[in-house]
Amino acid sequence: MPPVAAYAPAEIRGSAFGLLATVQSFGNFAASVIAGLLWTVAGPTWAFAYLTGWMILAAILLTGTPPRLVPAFALDENPSA
To answer: Under DSSP, is residue 66 helix (H, G, I), strand (E, B) or coil?
Structure first.
């Protein structure tokens, strides 16, 4: 289950997905503007180098991330067993 679906309460889950999509779209727009400027000013090699740098940074951060914990509301507080 995606983290947004796991952590957002059911009443606002649609809004949570909308907020996630909005934040991602702003990030995509900013990356595209910067890569486009680099492509125009310095050439395609610099644009691809910039984007490769972000991919490497993301890979390093994701591999060092601790495992995701189960949200508290997903735990059964009154086990019947």
So the answer is: coil
Rounded distance between C-alpha atoms, residue 30 and residue 15, angstroms: 23
Instruction: Count CB atoms within 10 A of the CB of residue 12.
Output: 11
Token output for 77: 């507080």
Q: What is the pLDDT of residues 27-74, one digit of tens each?
A: 999 999 999 999 999 999 999 999 999 999 888 888 876 666 666 555
Cα–Cα distance, 61 to 59 (Å, whole number): 5
79's tokens: 């086990």
Q: Are 16 and 36 in contact (CB under 8 A)?
A: no
Query: What is the C-alpha to C-alpha distance for residues 7 and 13, in angstroms, rounded to an integer?
Result: 9
Query: In the structure encoding, which two tokens stand for residue 3, read together?
Result: 């983290």
pTM above 0.90, yes or no: no
